[in-house]
Amino acid sequence: MTPNKSHNTKPRRGRTARLLNQILVGTHTGDHVQLHGAIVATLELYTIPDATNLIFCPALARLAHTPPSADRARAAVRAHLAAYTTP
After folding, report:
1. Which of 6-10, 48-52, 74-78 shows the lowest mean pLDDT across its residues?
2. Phi, psi (deg, nearest 5) at residue 23
3. Rounded to an integer, what distance in angstroms lies between the CA atom of residue 54 and that of residue 1?
4. Which of 14, 30, 40, 63 could bond 70 through an S-S bridge, CB–CB 3.0 to 4.6 Å?
């Protein structure tokens, strides 16, 4: 499967909202499969800057009122970003 990382493709709002929601739900419920699946899907569908701006930062902002959840999500995103940027 080839990731869709074209800068010319405008992200669809529905897909962006679903991925963001999956990160939130996976974090709040402790469903690591859902959380990590949403992060991986995001990184496969978007460039890292787009993923960060459209999904990761908004998700973390919405989790700010629950620091333990925000910390879990931040750590998961950070780990996946490291894997995607390691040569």
Report:
1. 6-10
2. -65, -45
3. 22
4. 63
Question: Nearest to residue 39, comparing CAs of 63, 87, 13, 27?
Answer: 27
What CA–CA distances, in Å, run from 68 to 1, 11, 13, 41, 47?
A: 34, 30, 28, 23, 27
Q: H helices within the chain, ranges in order?
A: 13-29, 32-45, 48-51, 57-62, 67-85
75's tokens = 């750590």
Q: How does pLDDT run across 57-75, given as a tens digit for each residue?
A: 999 999 999 999 999 999 9
Q: Rounded CA gap, 32 and 26, in Å?
A: 6
Q: How far apart are CA 48 and CA 33, in angstroms?
A: 21
Please say if the pLDDT value at position 40 is more than 80: yes
CA 56 to the chain's CA centroid: 5
